[in-house]
Amino acid sequence: MVRLITHNLLACHVKGCNTNNFPLQFQDVQIELREADFNADFLRGFLPKIEWNALVDAARQLGDTSLPQEQPTMIDDDFLKALHHVLLEIHVEEGAMVCPNCKHVYPIASGIPNMLLAEHEIG
Question: GO molecular function, one example (predicted)?
């Protein structure tokens, strides 16, 4: 499933596309909100792995402005709940992710991204 927790780890891997290939840009998406169990310890542990600007930009592409532009130094429950919602409860069901560099389109159908490349695209 495409959630922002996984989107934050995805980059384009088309042959020769190795600059400005992250983050993939959302296009023509349909989202669904699904409640998920809140786990503050998980979020605190995952936070250092997040590319913050990419997460905030992706959330805004999907219409969510609950995260601050700058990652806060003070981590409180309100921040963790907003982070939880953005990372784990917003599901991209349909649409595409597009590489900002080579413009390769990775379609999303039924919540599943197709990250497979054609043989000539593999480097």
Answer: protein heterodimerization activity
